[in-house]
Write a structure and sequence with these properties.
Blueprint (H helix, E strand, L loop, with lengths): L6 H4 L7 H6 L9 E5 L6 E7 L3 E2 L4 E2 L5 H4 L22 H6 L9 H4 L4 H4 L9 E2 L12 E2 L4
Parallel strand pairs: 2-5
Antiparallel strand pairs: 1-2, 2-6, 3-4
Length: 148
């Protein structure tokens, strides 16, 4: 009977296997968008500018295994740190489960379809551009508000 309860409903984040943890990612790509922080207020703003390693069609990292070497500031989420990242989108499964909320109906673990996140309009597909296309001094012009 317990085996029929999905792992994300019967385990705490810290109890999940690495494979279970990774499967929580819905593939939206929102965490790969660059964020700007207001030095005076500490407020964080998302931009439409994606890390150069994000495939903006699949919304997956093209060099996931080497991402920390290639992008030293890349965020590594863990059960212990997920609560520190208030900039994570409301729909992020890591944030959702950490806050005790259920997964969205379009989440691939529920739908069985890895493209359901895109079909629901919850990914950055068609909404993001590579950071390589905009000089860093112009990033403020690319702030968006649809992520959160």
């Amino acid at each position: 009977m317990i085996a029929s309860i999905p792992f994300w409903q019967r385990k705490r984040l810290g109890e999940m296997t690495p494979q279970e943890w990774e499967s929580l990612c819905d593939g939206c790509g929102k965490c790969c968008l660059h964020k700007l922080e207001d030095e005076d207020t500490g407020e964080v703003y998302h931009t439409e500018l994606a890390c150069r390693y994000l495939d903006t069609d699949s919304c997956r990292c093209t060099d996931y295994q080497q991402r920390l070497k290639n992008v030293p500031g890349c965020t590594v989420l863990s059960a212990e740190t997920v609560h520190l990242y208030s900039w994570l989108p409301w729909t992020c499964a890591y944030r959702t489960l950490a806050e005790g909320r259920p997964l969205s109906s379009w989440h691939p673990l529920l739908s069985g379809d890895p493209d359901s996140v895109h079909a629901a309009g919850e990914s950055v597909r068609g909404k993001a551009v590579s950071e390589d296309t905009v000089p860093e001094e112009d990033w403020e012009e690319h702030i968006i508000h649809w992520v959160l």
